[in-house]
Amino acid sequence: MHALIAQIKPVDSASGDRARAYLDTLTKPPGSLGMLEQLAIQLSEISGELASSITPPGVVVFAADHGVAAEGVSAFPQAVTAQMVANFAHGGAAINVFARQINAHLEVVDVGVVSDVEAPGVIVDKTRRASGNIATENAMYPEEAQAAIEAGIRAVERARKAGCRSVIIGEMGIANTTASSAMLAAFTGTAVEEVVGAGTGLNSQQQTHKVSVIERALAARDYEADKPLSVLAALGGLEIAAMAGAYLAAAAYRLPAVVDGFIATVAALTACRICPAVRGYLVFGHRSEEPGHGVALEALEAKPLLALGMRLGEGSGAALAFPLLQAANAMMAEMATFASAGIADKAP
Ligand SMILES: Cc1cc2ncn([C@H]3O[C@H](COP(=O)(O)O)[C@@H](O)[C@H]3O)c2cc1C
Ligand SMILES: O=C(O)c1cccnc1
């Protein structure tokens, strides 16, 4: 992990400047393609070129269980995590459908599901079976947090070996909005009720209970808010750690990483707290309905591409945003310039 982090370089801002200047030579009023222009600039900063291939994307879905599920903080039982892993393996989940639409290479990695899922293609890279119940104990030891981060790094290294030129990181883990809300409150000092939402579908009374469980965890756990590994170990989850590792690896290998919803953004914030240069490699796919997502996005000064009223996870919102990255690249590669098309570029 430390060797990989030492490899991370800030994105190439000179390349971004070249892209910005080139955009104004294309046959359109300056700035008229809005966020797509910002996206093209960011992709140039990442690749060091005006346009470069980002396909195929690698979708990695990390799955793990959470001891805090025992506190009744999710509308669904813990067993759904393993059942959804089998669903991913058989191609039936939302992320499978959206990954097929963008011709992605998809891998499911079990980094901490309680049961073993007998399904084709699932990579088993477990650090432990489920994190501890954060209301009563630490989620994991710091060494386990590091091991799960390394599982995330390995997954991106496999995607890269398989030829992927960008990554979309997703997750599955019943009760992981509870862990994510706890981490976000710890990182930002935001009041717990502002970072808690319905998750899979809690009613308002159940959400009040979820707030009290998280407040209990924050009061009882020992962590240092400015030490991301300590927050991860005290309050996080194995798939959240692996996702943070995946963002670190994407930055180290200069691959654009599309960030999904609430859980993914908390993992991305963790990676950026570990190494701030990661931020330049992150493209934010969508704004989730989960209220904490706005807080996490603000902490990263991030403006997501889409807002579709989604609150699923799995990497679904990031996969749906991916065609916009392709459009930004294609615009740079294929649009005519004022000079090449013989169009007047200014009013006389
Ligand atoms: C069938 C099903 C499929 C899912 N796919 C993603 N999640 C999402 O819901 C979970 C987080 O919500 P909470 O904290 O309320 O448990 C995560 O597993 C997340 O990926 C799902 C949840 C369910 C039930
Ligand atoms: O935004 C998300 O990623 C999310 C929201 C609710 C439930 N699962 C995931």
UniProtKB/TrEMBL annotation:
Single GO term (MF): nicotinate-nucleotide-dimethylbenzimidazole phosphoribosyltransferase activity
Annotated keywords: Cobalamin biosynthesis, Glycosyltransferase, Transferase
Any Gene Ontology biological process: cobalamin biosynthetic process
InterPro entries per record: Nict_dMeBzImd_PRibTrfase, Nict_dMeBzImd_PRibTrfase_bact, Nict_dMeBzImd_PRibTrfase_N, Nict_dMeBzImd_PRibTrfase_sf
EC assignment: 2.4.2.21
Superkingdom in the source lineage: Bacteria
UniProt pathway: Nucleoside biosynthesis; alpha-ribazole biosynthesis; alpha-ribazole from 5,6-dimethylbenzimidazole: step 1/2
Catalytic activity: 5,6-dimethylbenzimidazole + nicotinate beta-D-ribonucleotide = alpha-ribazole 5'-phosphate + nicotinate + H(+)
Residues at the active site: 314 (proton acceptor)
Pfam families noted in UniProt: DBI_PRT (PF02277)
Function in brief: Catalyzes the synthesis of alpha-ribazole-5'-phosphate from nicotinate mononucleotide (NAMN) and 5,6-dimethylbenzimidazole (DMB).
Family recorded in the similarity comment: Belongs to the CobT family.
PANTHER family per record: NICOTINATE-NUCLEOTIDE--DIMETHYLBENZIMIDAZOLE PHOSPHORIBOSYLTRANSFERASE (PTHR43463:SF1)
Name of the featured protein: Nicotinate-nucleotide--dimethylbenzimidazole phosphoribosyltransferase
UniProt gene name: cobT
